[in-house]
Design a protein that fits this description.
With 227 residues, this protein is an alpha+beta fold. It is built from 5 helices and 12 strands. It has a 5-stranded mixed β-sheet with strand order 2-1-5-3-4, covered by helices on one side. Strands 9-8-12-10-11 form a 5-stranded mixed β-sheet. Strands 6-7 form a two-stranded antiparallel ribbon. Keywords: Repeat.
Length: 227
């Protein structure tokens, strides 16, 4: 191939993509080659599959200011981006391990929600006074588990916890009526919750035993390495 032909081929770009609003996803590396991805949509489809996005990725944003990337040629080599569907860009400190939102926000149920990403400051370490759990949605093999940080210093009211789970899980069947372990056994109280463990939010329907962890937690995800 002539030097002129080589010059016509655009160089590959290395980028890292995060999941919108996910404080634990460590980012997935992509090599963007326009021979492989002929269109921006083709690249977004690949991102959807690779990051296990709960909905199809339709937008990429810059991580600090949320500027939308319009086309494949706008991607910059060595840069990071945030993948989203049609929802709004959610501001997090995506570029630092242990990304978190506002510290110590208290929700309407009176449960103290600590900085969910703070676990990442030391792999395998713990944050004093904070317990962190991960919750799947019953029968849903498209949505990754959502983090549930709870303060150890605040008395845990089980009804309030179920109400919080109802709001966060947004089950098709409606309210969350019970919380199950991955083997299907039901958790009957807050004292049975194990810090760092995975659970399944269930409505009125029966628990559906599915490979939630195997399919929805990426092999290199901080969900696995932190605990």
């Amino acid at each position: 191939m002539s030097p002129r032909g080589l010059a016509l081929a655009p160089p590959a770009k290395n980028v890292v993509v995060y999941r919108n609003g996910d404080p634990f996803f460590p980012g997935r590396k992509f090599v963007v080659n326009q021979r492989q991805f002929l269109t921006f949509e083709a690249f977004l489809n690949e991102v959807t599959k690779s990051i296990h996005a709960p909905l199809a990725v339709r937008n990429l944003y810059t991580p600090r200011h949320g500027h939308r990337v319009a086309e494949l040629g706008d991607l910059q080599d060595g840069c990071q981006y945030v993948a989203a569907g049609f929802e709004k860009f959610k501001r997090l400190d995506y570029l630092n391990r242990g990304r978190k939102e506002l510290r110590g926000t208290r929700n309407s149920q009176g449960l103290q929600a600590g900085p969910a990403g703070e676990k990442g400051t030391a792999l395998g370490g713990s944050v004093p006074g904070l317990s962190l759990f991960f919750v799947f949605r019953n029968g849903d093999l498209l949505s990754p588990p959502f983090p549930l940080p709870l303060s150890k210093s605040t008395p845990l009211q089980w009804d309030a916890l179920l109400a919080t789970l109802t709001e966060k899980a947004d089950l098709r069947s409606g309210a969350v009526n019970k919380l199950c372990r991955l083997d299907g056994t039901q958790v009957s109280g807050g004292e049975e919750l194990v810090n760092g463990d995975y659970y399944v939010a269930v409505g009125n329907e029966e628990y559906k035993k599915l490979p939630y962890f195997e399919l929805l937690v990426p092999q290199d995800s901080v969900y696995k390495t932190l605990w």
